[in-house]
Amino acid sequence: MPDTAVIETFCGRLERLVAIDSPSGGIEQEQVAAELLGWLAPLGVSHHWIDEPDNPARSLAVTLPGDGVPAVSLLGHTDTVFPLGTAGERPFRRAGDRCFGPGVADMKGGLVLAAMAVERLAASPRRPFSELRLLICADEETRLRAPAATEPARGSAAALVFECARENGNLVSSRKGAIWRTLHVEGRAAHAGADTARGRSAVSALAPEIERIEGLATGRPEMTSVITTVQAGDAANTVPGWARATIDIRSSLAADLDHALAALDQPAARDGIGYRLEGRGTWPAMPYSAWLAELATGLAGELGLDIGHELSGGVSDGCWTGAYGVPTLDGLGPSGGSDHTADEWIEVASLPARVELAARLVEAACRAPA
User: Fold this and answer.
1) What is the mean pLDDT of the chain?
2) CATH 3.40.50.1240 applies to domain 3-176+285-367
3) Residues 6+ apart with CB under 8 A from 39
């Protein structure tokens, strides 16, 4: 397909996906997955829907059979962070070499690119894989547990994730893991003027805990520890009897995350104060696969893409495939940026090369030594 035809096909398909609002927690994600399946069904693929615990929308696995030995998995997700109605308020728009709209970068553009790579491989005279598995997750943005949709990736020669590339085109060769918790502090409410001594301020107890928790990253350059939100108290003239803080800790090193987990549940004892730590999810780090990253950047150079690879502080479904021991590479979607904002964008000029890169990487991964 000529480059201009690749770009036009891509943009037409992306416009259709962006027009479908698919916020996390709904069922509209299945409509996005069904669109992808409709494009791929003529290739002779098989498919099955996958129930996701604690989420109403199902994920989808689409499988293209091959005549080789190893399986290769491609991953993406259909949910976005934007509420219902966003697509109507801020529809898909193309301006020059950029496309805009809710989810173009995270990650409906990556889904379209992955589907076009599957089409390119289906047209090849030989398919060097036993199966090419396109795993379309329904709830990546809000999930606090391992997704059922990544289970079919176990045992694959490689897992290729189509989150958007960095703004400079770089791939993502590793990701930090994450610990998300909420610290609840219980004190005793009292009138702030008349009964001050009877109260036990949850805010006063929380304040040093904030400093302690954020200090866990001291001397650990790969680690960040941030208190992201704080709420407390019921009235302006009352000693606050409760407080809570949300915690976001990330690192690419398992030892850092182990250190944080052990320390989080050790608050300083204070008279009349109780603490409770609520779990909101723990994501593993996506480990660096040197051979896969080097293979991809070498192939990119052959296609005229001057890109490298880098560590990302964000998580993705590649964290789970990496934890399964599957060599994983992310950022294979279009170059883009401003994810989760009204300015989200992707670049289209390099799309033909990036589709070819994904296809060649699948073929080369099948030839890599076990």
Assistant:
1) 96
2) no
3) 13, 115, 119
